[in-house]
Amino acid sequence: ILNYDIMARFRRRTCIILLLFILFICSIMMALKTLRPDRAGFGDPFGLGLLPELQQRTVLLDSKHNSLNRAQGDTVTRVSNLHSIAVNTMKASMSPVKKLEEELSSPNYNFHIFYYTWYGNPQFDGKYIHWNHPLLPHWDPKIANNYPKGRHNPPEDIGANFYPELGSYSSKDPTVIEAHMKQMRSASTGVIVLSWYPPGMADENGEPTDDLVPVVLDYAHKYNLKVTFHIEPYKDRDDRSMYHNVKYIIDKYGSHPAFYRHKTSTGRLLPMFYVYDSYVTIPEIWANLLTVSGSQSIRNTPYDALFIALLVEERHKHDIHRSGFDGMYTYFATNGFSYGSSHHNWASLKAFCDSNNLMFIPSVGPGYIDTSIRPWNNHNTRNRVNGKYYETAFSAALLVRPEIISITSFNEWHEGTQIEKAIPKRTGQVVYLDYKPHKPNVYLELTQKWSEKYRKEQEQWLM
User: Fold this and answer.
1) Whose CA, among 10, 88, 157, 458, lies 20 to 30 Å from 320?
2) Which GO terms describe its cellular component (predicted)?
């Protein structure tokens, strides 16, 4: 009996030790995956198809474009009225501008931040837009059947894993726009990269927003911020339509004091356009627009600009060069998922750009989670680790000494990359993530911190 008791205790102790050891190993693996998942994504059977926008936009591009022209007949009137309200609001609040300048950090025009104006609510839009985002099914029906379907039901249930401090807001609300500008300015960013579709077009879940651009420009100017454009993959985007749309943007908005122009190494001041999903169009088509000898060349015309392509795969760098683009950006906030978003590849990408007279603009983000709209995509989640993930990304970006750093994003709530203020919130069925133990503005403060660090290090680079 004594021997049996001793053996039983020995087995229990051994099991406990083994269990603790397994938990320890799992903790280490999760930490490593979060902070530097160098090969995450490529090892699974879906490969690049798991990239949230690559698969959805490339494979399903035609079906998505069928819904781009949805617009209510009274949109223009409603936005025009909102513009008048915004102008009157601004006139009433212009007196404290000097005080704002003293209180807020100076803008860093080498920090560009992606911004979305596609949100709507009943008060300003007659209905919820984007907050009621549908749950996107997996492209493999066998996997899709294991996950819920339907769409979110705001204001308590929204298409995001975090909840904004401003609630399920409308991007047309002047008080929201001003609050956003103040937050971006407090973060010491300088250039807003505004998601843009041509007039009358929108993403598959939204409504046209081009009429909102003048209001964004006005408020950006109030806070001494600049605005450039993130041209989305609208229907029939090619060399000809791009020429006409670039001409439209410059003709309509180019004279506004908040319209961004970048000073090149040759001293020219040129507009800048980020081109999302540029790889969807073949290099030969882009070359018609972006090379001097192209049949639709925009070079050396009043509409010449800096065009920045999205790099996802390694081979894209050669396509970008052949296309005549002026640079590349990486957009995704998922370190290790794609070649372009992997921090350890940025040095070689920067070297390639330097040797080919291209700009390299790495994109840093605070984390990534999109399971509120892609419930099957949890393996691509990147934990924020209380801000450590964001700082790791900034550190990696500064190592390659880029001329510009882009931030993904200010308010892409669906993919959990936002640095906009978020608050703790719990409803009957949903517990939202939050920034605790920090305050709602922690990622604005971290951005401001790294903006100052960038400025100081850039002074050393230029010496």
Assistant:
1) 458
2) Golgi membrane
